[in-house]
Amino acid sequence: MRLLLYLCCLLLSSYNNMSFALSVDHAVYSSVQSQDTSAIQSATKSKDNPLKSSSGKHYDFASIELLIEQEVGRIVLTQVYENIGINITISPLPGKRAQYVANTGMKDGEIMRIWTYGDENPNTIRVPTPYYYLETMPFVL
């Protein structure tokens, strides 16, 4: 548990909040209307950033339960959103149920899925800025 918390603190301290905010802005704006990157960047830099002014709004995401990497993501992503002024909760659910509630709109989205998830679930909008990644490798004796 101590290692998990250390990892989360390490990730949060080295994370660039502005790049994440730009990606969230892009995903939000492109779902409503298409805007160019310069307009999104200028809105993010301005004092009247729509994301920061919507701090009263609350988002509810799903995650896959019983996976340690999802637990790390719940800690990291909650803090990242909090740093840019957005309140979120993340509810752990079985994998298929998490996918269902995100696709049907019962939840605002789902965290920590592979890249092709966005292609396979057209009702979702991919926020392409990574905040955490995994590498798998075999170990043999």
Distinctive features:
141 residues, mainly alpha, three-stranded parallel sheet, 7 helices
If you had to describe this structure to a student in words, what would you say it looks like?
Helix 1 runs parallel beside helix 5 and helix 2 crosses helix 3. It is built from seven helices and three strands. About 17% of the residues have low confidence. 16% of the residues are buried. It has 141 residues and is mostly helical. It is globular and about 55 Å long. It has a three-stranded parallel sheet. The longest helix is centred in the N-terminal third of the chain and has 16 residues. The two termini are 27 Å apart.
**Radius of gyration over alpha carbons?**
16 Å
Q: List how many beta strands DSSP finds.
A: 3
Output the strand order for the largest sheet: 2-1-3
Q: Beta-strand level of the residues, as a percent range?
A: 5-15%
Structural class, please? mainly alpha
Oligomer: single chain
Mean pLDDT: 75
The number of helices is 7
C-alpha end-to-end distance: 27 Å
Outline: globular
Summarize the model shown:
The chain has 141 residues and is mainly alpha-helical.
Topology:
Layout: H1 2-14, H2 17-32, H3 37-45, H4 50-53, E1 58-64, H5 68-83, E2 87-93, H6 95-104, E3 109-110, H7 117-120
Parallel strand pairs: 1-2, 1-3
Helix pairs in contact: 1-5, 2-3
